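A favour, since you know our structure tokens better than I do. Just paste the record in under my message, thanks.
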Amino acid sequence: MHKGWSPAYVAGAHRIRALRRSFFLAFCLTAAAASAQPADTALARRDATAWLNKIHRAAQRENYNGTLIYQRGSVMHASRIQHYSDAAQNEYERLETLDGKPREVLRENDVVHSLIPEAKLVVVEKQQAKDRFPALLATNKTDVLDLYDMRKLPDERLAGLECAVFALQPHDGARYAVRLWAEKNSGLLVRAQTLDENGKVLEQVAFSQVQIGVPSEKQRILSAIRGSSGWNHYEVTYQPANIADEGWSINVPVKGFQKIREVRRPLGELRGQQGDGRNQTFEVQQVVYSDGLTGLSVFIEPVSEQRARREGVASLGATQVVVRRIADFWITVVGEVPAATVKQFAAAVEYHSPKVTH
């Protein structure tokens, strides 16, 4: 015993060492249990389909709120989400940014109100997409499991919740692999990762904190929508389009991708294009393709001096972009797919000037 150390100190030191040994033993037991878990197992198609539908349905039917962390490449953003559903299967959602300038998105079913406080502006539009996190499936026109193998990985605890973990491995190199963490009881997606062919995480979105089964506060969302009625409103309208009528054709070059939407949409305004100083709405045509799990868009816009463009490629995280010029039009292909897939779609766009009929 060292001189000056009291019996109480020595007893305390023994307790600390005993506690450390307990922690070390617990760690070893946990590691042993983890190593003893079964290896990755391929899911039967029936079980895989059930889980995919459960995950997708939970995003639409569960009441939940929490904090989302979104990472694409080196860029990270945080936001707060509230989501509620009623007996009639109506959806109400509020999404607030926690980084940068304040932004708020309020949704009632497919009508979305994007609030820009510093401009007292509300942008209103209808959004048909149903695949935004924590939702999953973009379309039922194709079966995801014809294109991906789904495997069950060992369960993990995430954001304080016990989660089932799954890997979706594509059959080819035309799309990325995906990893999913779903809360075991409700099926709510807690984390989703997009990975390249080497297993590197290109993009991920996850709840850092989430509560499931919370009381509905849909009236607060509806009140917030009504409370913005005094702001300036800009309504984004989408018109059905048929690019074939205007001389365009796109022969889908990649198996599994199907056209799910074709619209004409405003992109902004060009000033002084009508010779009288008035603004002219600038429109683009958009064709959306999906394999059920991921997708890409082809944009067609006329060449304009007011919008400087140039041909090239770019990428950020899982998102790839290709811009090319055809005649007097810019073609932009954007997708969360490998670069080769985006380039194939860009090369598949063809234009034949429509015949003028008298």
Summary: The longest strand covers residues 258-271. The two ends are 109 Å apart (CA to CA). The chain has two domains: 41-227, 238-351.
